[in-house]
Amino acid sequence: MPDWTRLPPEIRLMVLEELVRAEQKDDHKVSGYAVVSREWQVFFERHTFKKLKLHQGHLAELKRILHNTYRLPITVEDLWFNIQLPRFGCESCQTEESAFEEWQNNVIFTKAIWKLFKILGSWSRRRPLTDGKRMTLSLSAR
Question: What string of DSSP letters covers 30-43?
Answer without folding.
Answer: -GGGGGS-HHHHHH
